[in-house]
Input
Amino acid sequence: MADVISLAKEKPDEGLPKEEPFKAAPTRTIWSGNLRIGLVNIPVKAVSMTKDKRISFRMLHRSCKTPISYKRFCQQGDEVSLPDIVYGYPLGRNQYVVLEKKEIDSAKPASRNVIELDRFVNFFQVDPHYFDMTYLLLPDRSEEAYSLLRSVMERTGKAAIGRITIHSRERVVLVHYYREAIVATTLRYPDEVLDPGSYAALRELPRPGEKELDLALEIVKGLTGDLNFAAYKDEYRERVEALVRSKMKGITVAPEKKKARPAAKSLMEALRMTAESLSSDKNESH
Output
């Protein structure tokens, strides 16, 4: 039987959030306030549009099975308590401007519960590489006004630009229609998105040969189809969950051996073998 242990009650700062295995955390309101267009106010609540379902592990001591905790030490070897910690803004190697936490807090934007929507744009005009986090906006006793804005956005394909203060940071936000709802997507600032053209490795790439290009186009054509997100699953998470369930039942699962792919000696050979494989699969399906 596998080791299944119950942890003793921990100190508040020592543990990860207590969650039952494989269950999503309940939805909670992350932000609440008003969408404002001129004199029109639409009270809304923002909840996360995504669920983080990554597997997380807790490190335990092999002999006693208790959780590993950490203490704070400076490079001089002394243990440091929270009141003795200040914050360094790095200037260079081993050079910092020292700031107190209250000084940093004073620079944070004032919490605002209003998103001023001052411009409407075409949704597809916005480069998706600027997208950061998306939040579902729910009406907060504002069903009539919310429904009106949703209908306008659905009919026109327009999205509204504004600003939001969330998690102590002011962000540009794109408010738009999505699947019978209004959602808000925070955007990165222009200096947070890298320009690929600044990399010499991309500017100096060789031009592909016509034979290689023709084979590559043939491969793309053979793999072209409709997007089906349901076909893509987090196989690592599923394997770990299956492993945990089997160990709780006292079953030992042998890891699957991955089949080795035949190695190609050159790019041209790899393209040719791939194209032939796609052609063979297509013939077998008919």
In short: The two ends are 49 Å apart (CA to CA).
